[in-house]
Amino acid sequence: MNQTNPRRKITSLLEIFLVSLRLGFTSFGGPIAHLGYFHEEYVRRRKWMDEKSYADLVALAQFLPGPASSQVGIGIGVMRAGVLGGIISFLGFTLPSVVALILFALLLKEFDIGTAGWIHGLKIVAVAVVAHAIMGMSKNLTPDIKRKAIALFALVGTLVWQTAFTQIGVILLAALLGFLLYKQPEESEETSSPFPIAKRISVIFLALFFSLLFLLPILREITGSYWVAMFDSFYRAGSLVFGGGHVVLPLLEQEFVPTGWLSEASFLAGYGATQAVPGPLFTFAAYLGTVMNGWLGGLVATGAIFLPAFLLILGALPFWDSLRNNPKIKGAILGVNAAVVGILISAFYFPIWTSSILAPVDFALASILFSMLAYWKLPPWIIVVSGAVGGSLLAMFQ
């Protein structure tokens, strides 16, 4: 499409925004479901890209840290209307859940409802949701004994050493183990596809990503600024999460709960509420930022946690072919993905289980919610509503 005509470009950007906004209002079910919605809308219905290009883009998003579905949406916008198209696509898809979670956080603060029974129900929802995520991810990411061992190493490491840097070290060691153990992974056909970004521009995006990752902690120490510290914590979480939105939970918990920036009860209540809204799970950051520092904090947190996704997808697009066809890189990613399972199991025990399952009836409710999600295949919003109602009923009879 020729984008030299300003009116045509504005029309194209408006179309991208409206389509992605509708997806943002209707895309429930997590990143895998989002990719299905994207395929139906962008590939089958609108034919903005072909099957191969879409598959290539999904593969790149799965390879990179960060929110996979959001990165695919950004990439589609870039291919349609350049970098500005990627930004517009992201805004449309993310806006509905960000607004909903900021409003929920403001309600939580204004009316002091942190001890309400339905809030405890939302914490139990988090138990069911993460247990379901573990079940699916472990089947796909730890199919052999070597990857199961890496997952166990990650589980033990993150439980025994509870620091903000443990998970980073575990991920790096898992990458090294995968590199050593899977030097010759299964042979696959080499593929290639063109992406509409010059390599010199992509290098700038990658340099900015790594510069912020290393300079923000230094700036945080030098300035002592609350806002710099907050931006650094969310940016680092968005930079180091492999495996999707659920895995951001332990990183954010380690950043904010031990430091006293917010309570475990508020943290888990927001995580449960995040399951009820459409769009990416990373918008959990909007809730956390709002609880800590009002609606402006919510916007800053959202921008910080999604910024790495932008920089990485725009920086990696032209280099994707050489990366994915490198067997050593493939092995390292296998190790990282296995470690993700162990990290998530660790977070499932602490803080999710230890602060949510306080009595046998709590476990009973969690079992019901898990069965509704995993076996009856009910939509996530029904699980959330059921958890809130169940928590209120438990509070009435205790």
TrEMBL record:
PANTHER family per the UniProt record, alphabetical: CHROMATE ION TRANSPORTER (EUROFUNG)
Keyword Heme: no
Molecular-function GO term, any one: chromate transmembrane transporter activity
Keywords, comma-separated and alphabetical: Cell membrane, Membrane, Transmembrane, Transmembrane helix
InterPro entries: Chr_Tranpt_l_chain (IPR014047), Chromate_transpt (IPR003370)
Protein location: Cell membrane
UniProt family annotation: Belongs to the chromate ion transporter (CHR) (TC 2.A.51) family.
UniProt superkingdom: Bacteria
Residues spanning the membrane: 12-37, 83-106, 118-137, 149-181, 201-219, 226-248, 268-288, 295-320, 332-350, 381-397
Record-given protein name: Chromate transporter
Cellular compartments per GO CC: plasma membrane
Membrane topology: Multi-pass membrane protein
